[in-house]
Amino acid sequence: MRKKLLVFGIAITIVNTNVFAQENEEDVEKGNLSEMLDTYSHYDVEPSPSVWLLSNAEVNSTAITSAFYTKLYQGGFIDQSLKDQVKNRLTSNNLLGGEFNSSIYYHSGSPALFKNKFSYAISLGYTIDFAAKFSSDLFNFTFYGNKSFENKTADFSDTRFKMMTSQFVGFSLIQSSDKYYLTVGLNLIKGQNYYDFSVNKGSVYTAPSGSYLDVVANGSFVRSDTTHNDFTSFNGMGAGLNLIYNRHLKDNSNLVFSASNVGAMYWNSATVRTNVDTSVQFDGLKVDNIFSIQDSLFTNVSGKNVFNDYTHNSSASRLTLLPMTFRADYYKYFEKGFQFLGSIQYKNWGSYIPRATATLGFRLPAYWYLHVGAGYGGYGQAHLSLGLSGMVGKTYLMFGSSDCLGFIALNKFSNEGLYLKAFYHF
Amino acid sequence: MNKFLTLLAAIVVLSFGCRRDIAESSWNTQVVTPLIKSSMSLDDLLGDTMVQKNNDNSLKVVYNQHLYSANTDSLFKFPDSTYTYGTSLQTLVLSNDSVVHSITLGQIAREQGGFIGPFILSNQGVPFPFPAMTDISSSDIAMDGGAFFESVDVLTGFLDIRINNNLPVDISLLDFLLKNDILLGGDTIASGTFPLIPSGGSQLMSFPLDGKSVKSKMLGKIIKMNTDASVGAVPIDTNNAVTAIIKIRDLKPQSATAYFPGQEVFKKIEGIKLSALSKMMLNEIKVKSGEVHVEVFSSIRDTIFFHYEIPSASSGGIPFQVDTFVPPALPNSTTSFSYTYPFKDYTLNLRGFGIEDDLGEDINGNGFYDPDTVNTFVQKLLGSIKAKNQMVTLTIGDTFYVNAGLRALVPAYGEGYIGNDTMQIGPSSTSLSVFNKMVSGSVNFEDVKVDLEVTNGLGAKLDVDVDNITAVNTKQNNSLALSNVTISSPISIDKALKVPQGQLPVTPQKVVISLDKGNSNIDQFVEVFPDRIDYKMAVRLNSDIVTPPTYTDVLTSPPNFAYNSTGVDVSMNIEIPLSMIAQDLVLADTIDFSITKSDATQGYQNGTFTLLTNNGFPFSTEVSIYMLDANNNVVDSIFSHGNIPAANIYLDGAEWKVSSKKSSEITFPVDVTKMEKLFNASKLLVIAKFNTAQPGSDYIKVYTDYSIDFKLAGDFGYQVRVKN
Question: Are residues B710 and B601 in the same domain?
């Protein structure tokens, strides 16, 4: 049972905190991730060093359909029906968010540190987190134009967008016993870029015939150094703490509490904060002589210039919280390979709604397992997961969709998620 | 492990490979938005330099139309006064060096032989009574003149041979022969007999060399020499010698190859009369601009050092002079060069050789200081060669041509007497732009004032006789001659005062003839809307000088002067108060237009635009705007016959004024095809028909605060394109 505990703990760590855990007993079993049950209990595994590769990507929204998002991101023409499908799903408060991470881990296997009480893990990874919140008017204004708002006001208030791209190196200590399993780890994080746009109050009134536009804007825009934002850019530095406590219960079940990425980022002095608090009536670009219209009239007119006229920019270093994740899991093993995992998760990023998930595992021939899960919350609404896991040689594979509704019904759902994970024991 | 690496690659591909590198997303929107706006007063429409404000804040159009001007450029037209001088080498001077050769007593003794010869040779220093000797001769004696010439083909000249007798005895006879070296032809150069040459004395004989060729390698020979007996015994000194000194003089060679000494090869000093000044008598001009042009052709096979000088021209007390050189010509060819030197800010004295008094130099070498004249300057040309350590071949007939003088001379100032010619001005015309936008219709102005202004900046009295001034509207093929009593008679203008006024060097004199409805037909003249004014005038100079002055008068008290910056100027100052009645007045104007495509404009789809106007002018307008290509061909219309109603007006006493602006809209569709034409258009043609708003035949004024507001708004489809 301790093997199951260990493997499950490692899986939890990978998914939620990117920190390894292991124990030094020989009958280690490989287990599932937090979103699936232990599928690996029938394999005998040595407590040897291992390398784990993980890649996970998911996008969720309460309104934006998968087909729409795909066109927007991958390119192509967004036709009227695509826009209408989203429009029909819009509410006054719409969410869009997701994450991408890809990482590699090395785990020492047997406890080797502090009088052989702790094993350790080191890790290297790449992470993107983004989240947006927007009104239906913003969507309609952007994708239908302002004609439909003639003699009306389009309300953009309470619009948010937040995104962070980073890379990390991590180190963790893992201790396990018959009753619990504990991981404490620290990630050192390189900030590549950061955006935090917030419109507290915003609207555009379009006068009849478009004779003028009344624009109201109150908000702030924070962005890291935009002149250096590629992979090699070092625009910020931070640290995140990872904690996992996995308690073995008597009825062949476990209760796990974890907190990951608890920390902050320090963005350098090239970080720009733009404040805007204005109301502007735009009734045309003023020209001295209407009979002398040349390109040069517009030379000094650009969106950037107009924007600068009504905003105040300041560059300074900034401290921001990391996208932290807090999670509780309960899992239980039943006879004949049937498994259950229940989780609830919260992320302090954007307008994330606590997400609850229940997953069942079914054993297949050759000790492969099928995982089927359902959930609600996060950036989207309903979620459905589907995955497989099993051994290929000495490599344990887990792959599937963490959110497959968006793949099944492109025009009705928005949630898409893919994962591919592999564990290799030497 | 290999499978694991394969999996690692798959993860990387999964992570980064699902997205195209640069993907463009697009969608259609419908946009309504204001685009541009403008508010225009009459200043903006007509140009603020043309519009002025009256005391009552009403506006008037003020326009200055220049008809004619003439300055010293047209008064003093100096054709290029270059002078051509050609010459050939006439005389050449060779070096004064001589060929010297001596025959010692010892050499004579050896030639003599017999008893005497060996005796003399063996008794050096012994007193000896020399007997008379006869028939002394010598073999060929080589003589070399290569140190100063190689060969000379003589046209005319002389060979001098001097014999110095330093023998202890008299030479009673000496026959000699001088010829060119056998290898160089062996021609005889000179031969003859010297009579008695006393001991210690010398004799000179000259031989003409006409037609002979003298080489540097020569052979001399004593054919026969007799000596007398000595008076008593004298000591024998075998170093005593007979010396021949050979020199060429007064040479006019056909050709010579020699080390020529430095010498002047030509010199020309000329007085150059400025042409086209038939009736003018100028004693001095100050040069604003011009150039000295020197062109030289030479067949001389030596470097010719060339000096050009205008002693009459000075700047800061320094005369104009140029020193340069002409490189040697190759045999049987000509070398040439052409130089142009700026000639500006010089004072050019035109008193001819009369400047000799000032310079204290008899420039032309005629033995006296010449008297003053007018219209003439002096130039000096000198050519020379310089001695050098190089043999040069020069030939009589080598030619040297110089073309030198002043070109493009523009005076800044001139003084003297400029004559009493009558200058015919015209028939000529000048274009008038103030009305060139008017196409048709009519305007009746309440008042029109025009000042015809004649300004004289010359130092000479003028009489202007106006033959005609005619307004011409070429578009409507309409014209009208100006009629006024004053201009039907000659207009006299006194000469300018030589007193600076502001930036001008003189105080011009001016005559202003005011034309209005009362004394002329100027209102009808203006209402022709002329785009051209034709004129014909005559300007007579110096009508107050009946008898032309003498040279002396001109030099002592020049009656006229003229500056380049001032002259005769005829212009019209037009003032039209904007109080008028316009009936179907059609104005047309083409305006430059250039809107280029950009990423932002690519997304345009069909749409409708609205021109919102708020008119504060008291006239209605019917507007059409057309697109023109680069060749001014109409491509399409943007819209036509759009109506902008006149502002609301009210009667203020007896005068109509604007009470409030009136708004209106002109809506016109612009599809993608028309937008494409708009992008390609180079100009817009705007045609506007105006009608004043007032009822009946009342005039209506335009005030400074009248304006019209424009705003262009669009309602169009737009495809947003976003590159991810």
Answer: yes
* DSSP secondary structure string for all residues of A35-75: TS----TTS-B----EEEEEEEEEEEESS--HHHHHHHHH-
Q: Give the CA radius of gyration of chain A.
A: 25
Is residue B424 included in any domain, yes or no? Answer: no
Q: Output the domain CATH number for residue B411.
A: 2.60.120
**What is the per-residue pLDDT across A224-261, written as a single tens digit (0 to 9) for each?**
998 888 888 999 999 999 999 988 888 888 899 999 99
What residues of chain B lie within 8 A of the CB of A80, using their CB? 28
pLDDT at A298: 55
Same domain assignment for residues B384 and B360: yes
Chains A, B: CB pairs < 8 Å: 159
Last residue of a domain, one of B577, B594, B618: B577
Integer CA distances (angstroms), B623 to B60, B178, B530, B610, B701, in order: 24, 111, 23, 14, 22
Predicted confidence (pLDDT) per residue in B566-620, tens digit: 888 889 898 988 888 888 888 888 888 887 777 777 888 889 999 999 999 999 9
Crossing angle for the helix pair A80-89 and A66-74, to the nearest 10 degrees = 130
Nearest CB neighbour to B36, from listed A54, A73, A287:
A287
Closest in A126, A209, A393 to B713, CB measured: A209
Q: Which residues of B touch A424 (CB under 8 A)?
A: 1, 4
Least confident stretch, A392-401, B368-377, B437-446: B437-446
Q: Is the pLDDT of residue B322 over 60?
A: yes
pLDDT at position B22 is: 56
B226 and B112 within one domain: yes
Cα three-residue angle A403-A405-A411, rounded to 5 degrees: 135
B139–A contact, CB cutoff 8 A:
no
A285 and B10: CB-CB below 8 Å?
no
Provide the number of structural domains found in chain B: 4
**A416-425 and A395-403 as β-strands: parallel, antiparallel, unpaired?**
antiparallel
Interface residue B28 vs chain A (CB under 8 A): yes
- Does B333 lie in the same domain as B409? yes
Contact A15, A99 (CB under 8 A): no
The stretches of A194-319 forming alpha helices (DSSP H) are 303-309
Last residue of a domain, which of B199, B221, B253? B253
**Residue B611 shares a structural domain with residue B509:** no
Q: Do A290 and B610 touch (CB under 8 A)?
A: no
Of the candidates B679, B677, B666, the one whose C-alpha atom is nearest the C-alpha of residue B711 is B666
Q: Quick one: B86 and B151 in the same domain?
A: no
Task: Provide the shortest C-alpha distance from residue A381 to chain B (in Å).
Answer: 25
Q: Per the domain annotation, does B506 fall within a domain?
A: yes
Looking at residue A215, its pLDDT comes to 93
Looking at the complex, does the CB of residue B31 fall below 8 Å from at least one CB of chain A? yes
Mutating which of B1, B11, B712 best tests the A interface, going by the most A Cβ atoms within 10 A? B11
- Find the mean pLDDT for residues A6-24: 37
Chain B residues with beta carbon closer than 8 angstroms to that of A400: none
- The answer, yes or no, to whether residue B162 has pLDDT greater than 60, is yes
Q: Is B40–A143 a contact, with Cβ atoms under 8 angstroms apart?
A: no
Q: What amino acid is encoded at B182 in this protein?
A: I
Return the residue in B14, B16, B33, B623 with the most chain A beta carbons within 10 A, the one to mutate for interface testing.
B33
* B245 and B390 co-located in one domain: no
pLDDT digits (tens, 9 = 90+) for A191-208: 999 999 999 999 999 999
Enter the ipTM: 0.81
Which residues in chain B are closer than 8 Å to A422, comparing Cβ atoms?
4, 7-8, 11
B54 found inside a domain: no
Task: List beta partners, residue A312.
Answer: A275
Task: Give the model confidence (pLDDT) of B468-514 as tens digits.
Answer: 999 999 988 899 999 988 888 889 999 999 998 888 889 999 999 99
Instruction: Report chain B residues whose CB lies below 8 A from the CB of A206.
Output: 32-33
What's A335's DSSP letter? Answer: G
Q: Is B15 in contact with A100 (Cβ distance < 8 A)? A: yes
Chain A contact for B23 (CB, 8 A cutoff): yes
Parent domain of B525: 62-71+429-577
Domain co-membership, B526 together with B628: no
